[in-house]
Specification:
Elements (H helix, E strand, L loop, with lengths): L1 H16 L1 E4 L2 E5 L3 H8 L3 H31 L5 H13 L2 H11 L6 H8 L13 H29 L3 H9 L4 H29 L3 H6 L11 H10 L3 H26 L10
Antiparallel strand pairs: 1-2
Helix pairs in contact: 1-12, 2-12, 3-7, 3-9, 4-7, 7-9, 9-12, 11-12
Length: 275
């Protein structure tokens, strides 16, 4: 099964990236030409930067919000079940439906955001939230954060539930405050859950397609275009070798980020997950 769903597809992708394509079929061997074409593409660096900003910023915000939500749920007592259902509801909405809703909410002329801010006197003129490079990226990050923070919160909540309560009771006897308990008990024992949530969220956000496609279409210009949108664009042009090379580059970037997470959190992937 591992060979069928991992090794063979990845190997075929590597082979595809070093061959030229003609009418959807492999043609002559071209070596690293497809990779050179990727790096010489004027859109690549912009799209690569956008993807990293979108992925890393949203993942960090989701981690902080998820940790706060998980902590509140962990202390909510008998209301935890009800609150957990409420919290997870945004994650149950499809990305396309959520993006369409936010597109109307942030609409410059008819959106409720501009209407509310004008009524409150916080702005004097309509703001084009999706028509500015910085605000467009901020909108995409906001939508992905709204959608996937519940997922991160549930993973961290499971991590919090696995921490023995005896450790907190003993630390209180030793005079530890809330800050000391979080810094020396919660955070170290929560590192495996933090690693898993960051890993999954980063992998998915690196290849996210529907949110920027629906919200901004990659614009204005290429300011919110991500890697997945570039892959879609090149697929329409039948540049399969280019797409294969770009996919391999995305795999390498993902592995580098995972390595950084492992080094930063000092989580052992082999063994019992000790810190």
């Amino acid at each position: 099964m591992i060979f069928a769903i991992v090794i063979f597809p990845l190997g075929y992708l590597v082979v595809s990236s070093i061959y030229g394509w003609s009418f959807g079929r492999m043609a002559e061997f071209v070596g690293l030409k497809n990779y050179i074409n990727v790096f010489q593409d004027p859109d690549f660096l912009t799209v690569f930067k956008n993807t990293l900003v979108f992925s890393l910023v949203s993942s960090c915000i989701e981690l902080l919000l998820g940790l706060g939500i998980a902590s509140l749920l962990d202390r909510s007592g008998k209301f935890e079940g009800t609150l957990r259902i409420i919290v997870v509801m945004p994650f149950m909405v499809s990305m396309v439906a959520g993006s369409v809703s936010f597109k109307w909410i942030l609409n410059a002329e008819f959106g409720i955001v501009n209407y509310s801010l004008i009524k409150l006197g916080l702005i004097r003129s309509l703001v084009n939230w999706l028509g500015s490079p910085m605000l467009g990226m901020l909108a995409c990050i906001t939508v992905i954060t709204w959608h996937t923070t519940p997922f991160v919160a549930l993973i961290l909540l499971a991590g919090l539930k696995s921490i023995p309560r005896d450790l907190y009771e003993v630390s209180e006897l030793d005079g530890a405050g809330m800050y000391q308990k979080f810094l020396f008990i919660t955070l170290p024992l929560l590192k495996p859950a933090i690693f898993v949530s960051l890993l999954i969220r980063t992998m998915y956000s690196l290849r996210n397609f529907p949110i920027p496609y629906v919200l901004t279409g990659g614009g204005p210009g290429n300011s919110t275009k991500l890697m997945a949108m570039l892959l879609q664009e090149k697929k329409i042009q039948l540049l399969f070798g280019y797409n294969s090379a770009l996919s391999i580059i995305m795999v390498i970037v993902t592995l580098i980020i995972v390595w950084a997470y492992v080094k930063g959190l000092r989580v052992e992937l082999i063994g019992k997950g000790k810190i």
